[in-house]
Amino acid sequence: MEFNYFDHNATTRLDDAVLEAILPYLQQNFGNASSRHSYGITARRAIDKARKQVADAVGVQPVQVIFTSGGSEANNLFIRGAADSLKPANILISAIEHPCVLKPALALSKRMTDPWNINMFPTNTSGQVDLEAVEKLLQRDKPALVSVMLVNNETGVIQNVSSIADMARAQGAIIHTDAVQGFGKIPVDFSVLKVHAMTLSAHKIYGPKGAAALIIDKRLMLRPLIYGGGHENGLRSGTENVAAIVGLGAACELAQSRLDETTKHILPLQEHLEKGLLAMGAVIFGAEVPRVTNTCYFALPDIEGDTLVVKLDKAGFAVAAGAACSSVNPGQSHVLAAMQVDPMLARCAVRVSLGRSNTLTQVEDFLQTTQRIAAELRHMSSITV
Both 340 and 359 in a single domain? Predict the structure, then answer.
């Protein structure tokens, strides 16, 4: 049975060109980048090259790129690192943030001593952060820290980060965006977004797992999460994962160069997919507002999402019931809850996230298979009622 992978927001297959870039640093060029001999110098030069590749891809200087082990660490480094550099104050985040932003922010509010005050920007029913509510909350709370994701990992909805950044800066706040699901799908430029910090991750853009970056304003003060030898300008100690960092650099360069090509390939697939789903009576979350071209978060009323995901997997299609990072905690999506989606409909949610390798034939096969499975499940349900 041919297997069709439709879960690219969870992770992507390592690109052949990225693998080729990585391979020499797994065996031949195995040196520690802190060593002074030729092996170490080779590793250091590889990291320096990767840092420049990442910087060039988002329009910053290499010194602004801090390598981490993943997007979760990068987000924690900003939230906790910035908070530890400031007196306790207010922190504002959107209600649809990834758990690796939500949870460290909540942890700040639960500190036994010097807790922070946390509040959340609401979204509208389409999944966009409410800009009027943002302005009111910023003026009322005068926050020290703000974090709003660029693209939601479940709905694919694009947030107006630059406008929120303007408002946050006007109140003297430090603003961060988790751009993990945006980079490689839409143009991402650090200065255009007007943020002080931004997170990227390799394995969402056909790079390896275990490498990410926090892009920071040169004036931003952070305290490290990990102390040790002072790597990454003292912000992230620990011997560098040279191969993964090389992979991140290569993946960022490829993602930037292929952006238009990728969009042109995937957009017709998304359009065909959603036309077919709507014909089945599906609800597509966030369809009324700008989204990235690869993501479709839908629900077939009365068909439970988890059940549909399992049936589709057995039929050769890998999709997700919400976000992969939350699969160990089943329950209603906090994103759909923030969008005020009826809980019964939210239970039916399934996410399809397309990639460069997907084809129109695969999408058509998916639609036919989904229609067949839905009919079978509804027939079974009618028998048992």
Answer: yes
| CATH number of the structural domain spanning residue 353 | 3.90.1150.10
Instruction: Identify the band that residue 332 occupies on the pLDDT scale cut at 50, 70 and 90.
Output: confident
Average per-residue pLDDT for the chain = 95
Q: What is the 3-state secondary structure (H, E, C) of 66-126?
A: EEECCHHHHHHHHHHHHHCCCCCCEEEEECCCCHHHHHHHHHHHCCCCCCCEEEEECECCC
Contact 216, 196 (CB under 8 A): yes
Residue 334 tokens, joined:
């906090």
The values of phi and psi at residue 113, to 5°, are: -120, 140
Q: With respect to residue 100, please indicate whether it lies within any of the assigned structural domains.
A: yes
Q: How far apart are CA 125 and CA 286, in angstroms?
A: 8
Q: Say yes or no: 251 and 273 in one domain.
A: no
CATH code where residue 241 lies:
3.40.640.10
Pairing of strands 174-178, 145-147: parallel
Residue 384: its pLDDT value, please? 58
Q: Which one, of 191, 164, 204, 165, lies nearest residue 64 by Cα?
A: 191
Shared domain for 251 and 303, answered yes or no, is no
Which of 202, 231, 257 is a domain's end point?
A: 257
Q: Which residues are catalytic?
A: 325
Residue 123: strand pairing partners: 129
Instruction: Give the helix/strand (H/E) hosting 275.
Output: helix 259-279
Domain span at 110:
16-257
* Residue 38 buriedness (CB in 10 A; 0-12 / 13-18 / 19+): exposed
CA triple 125-128-133, angle to 5 deg: 90
Its pTM surpasses 0.85: yes
Give 3's pLDDT tier (boundaries 50, 70, 90): confident
Residue 107 and residue 200 in one domain = yes
Let me know if residue 385 belongs to a domain.
Answer: no
